[in-house]
Design a protein that fits this description.
The complex is a heterodimer of chains A (about 110) and B (about 120).
Chain A: E1 4-7, E2 10-14, E3 19-25, E4 32-37, E5 43-48, E6 52-56, E7 59-64, E8 69-74, E9 83-90, E10 96-98, E11 102-107
Parallel strand pairs in A: 2-11
Antiparallel strand pairs in A: 1-3, 3-8, 4-5, 4-9, 6-7, 7-8, 9-10, 9-11
Chain B: E1 5-7, E2 10-13, E3 19-24, E4 31-37, E5 44-50, E6 53-56, E7 65-68, E8 75-79, E9 88-95, E10 110-111, E11 115-119
Parallel strand pairs in B: 2-11
Antiparallel strand pairs in B: 1-3, 3-8, 4-5, 4-9, 5-6, 7-8, 9-10, 9-11
The chains are: A mainly beta (about 110), B mainly beta (about 120).
Chain lengths: ~110, ~120
């Protein structure tokens, strides 16, 4: 099956700093989503981005489907950005395959 | 618009006991998914429903797990009997996926808050 690798596995930032999270996948995909899992366990949709670039406030994402990677940018980080960021791609039939996640800690 | 609703939020049971989880998807979403998330890992699909039909249950441990989606709306996931290794968060998601090429945003899956199961 398709493999999804995320990096870095852990990241500690000072409030106000910027960061880039990466997601590599092993095969072509129809769907790619970025999620933020908050400390209470809720998975929050950030982007549906099988290709191209999208921006939402301080967050933006770019997927280069031909090179099989996606990047999530977080600018001017805040403590509320802390949590786990997951990249997930569809393998078939809209089954999402998740990466292991990036644990982000933003310190004030 | 209400999101995906799950209950209970937490459940603690003794091993060998049965347990059931309930999910109400977003109104109008035809596709429903159950995922299991072990500690420190990403969620993994257990079963996917299109309306009332289970179209992908290849990852569901059928000896002890069962699921149903009566009338193509709410769904119940059951474990009987539970084992220590079943301790995890069980997540329900829904989408309005049609399988059509270029459906784009309809493919987006929305997740409920999950049920955290602890088996003692």
């Amino acid at each position: 099956g398709i493999q999804v690798e995320q990096s870095p596995p852990d990241l500690i930032l000072q409030e106000g700093a910027n960061s880039t999270l990466r997601c590599n996948f092993s095969d072509s995909v129809n769907n790619l989503q970025w999620f933020h899992q908050n400390p209470w366990g809720q998975l929050i949709n950030l982007f549906y981005i099988p290709s191209g670039t999208k921006q939402n406030g301080r967050l933006s994402a770019t997927t280069v489907a031909t090179e099989r990677y996606s990047l999530l940018y977080i600018s001017s980080s805040q403590t509320t950005d802390s949590g786990v960021y997951f990249c997930a791609v569809t393998e078939y039939g809209n089954k999402l395959v998740f990466g292991a996640g990036t644990i982000l800690r933003v310190k004030s | 618009e209400a999101g995906v609703v799950q209950s209970p939020r937490y459940k603690i049971i003794e091993k060998k006991q049965p347990v059931a989880f309930w999910c109400n998807p977003i109104s109008g979403h035809n596709t429903l998914y159950w995922y299991r998330q072990n500690l420190g890992q990403g969620p993994e699909l257990l079963i996917r429903y299109e309306n009332e039909e289970a179209v992908d249950d290849s990852q569901l441990p059928k000896d002890r797990f069962s699921a149903e989606r009566l009338k193509g709306v709410d769904s119940t996931l059951k474990i009987q009997p539970a084992e220590l290794g079943d301790s995890a968060v069980y997540l329900c998601a829904s989408s309005s996926w049609t399988g059509e090429a270029g459906a784009q945003e309809a493919d987006t899956q929305y997740f409920g808050p999950g049920t955290r199961l602890t088996v003692l």
